[in-house]
Amino acid sequence: MSSSDPGRPSVRRLFAAVLPPASAVAELRKALAPLRALPGAPDLRWTGPEGWHFTLAFYGEVPEDAAPELEARLERAARRSEPFALRVHGAGHFGGRALWAGAAGGLDTLRLLAERADAAARRTGLPMEEHRRYTPHLTLARSRGAADLRPFAAALAGFEGQRWEAAELTLVRSHLPVSGVPGEQPRYTAKRAWPLGG
Fold first, then answer.
1. Given 3-state DSSP classes, what are the helix, strand and coil percentages for the chain, each rounded to the nearest 5?
2. Is the alpha carbon torsion for 59, 194, 175, 109 positive or negative?
3. Catalytic pick from 53, 89, 93, 175?
4. Which helix (H) or strand (E) holds 195?
């Protein structure tokens, strides 16, 4: 369903996330540079630093009229959650599909915030996927087919990013590629952000 279809309700593709600060992004960007020289690197679709985030809950296409309630519930979830220490840490992969960086620090608080962001959507009446244990990750690259991502994950496994304070819950809008240009990435814009602890 598209927001441009006449006669259909307007929708936006949304998710809740914790965004890393510019200093953490710069540090990770520097650590990734050597990975781009590894065999197979040109075949991967590398996500740009402007797209790096820790997704808490993915909502998909949210009807415009449901957004105010979702935002009110996310604001309450943020207010009930205290700021916490976080850092980008290590790496892993989801099969041969996606390479990611992990997280360390206040993971219990991060998981609780993810549960609250998920619950906010369910209470708003949005259809959500089956609830699974939250695995914090920041997607670095995707494969067009099945790729051996183990060398990339191994090269970044020892990465220990700087500690920073996660102090906001952000509602992000995802703009899917529309140009048809190969390799075009989704664009993300922060729609609203709420301070943790209120």
1. 30, 35, 35
2. negative
3. 53
4. strand 187-195
Q: Are 113 and 92 in contact (CB under 8 A)?
A: no
Q: Which amino acid is at 21?
A: P
Distance CA(49)–CA(185), nearest Å, equals: 11
Q: How far apart are CA 75 and CA 86, in angstroms?
A: 21
pLDDT at residue 2 is higher than 50: no
Domains in the chain (CATH in brackets) are 11-195 (3.90.1140.10)
Give the closest residue to 88 by CA, choosing from 173, 41, 22.
Answer: 22
**133: helix, coil or strand?**
coil
Q: Which residue has tokens 């593709």?
A: 13
Verdict on whether the full-model pTM lies above 0.90: no
53 is catalytic: yes
Q: Of residues 89, 93, 131, 137, which has the active-site annotation?
A: 137
| pLDDT at position 80 | 96
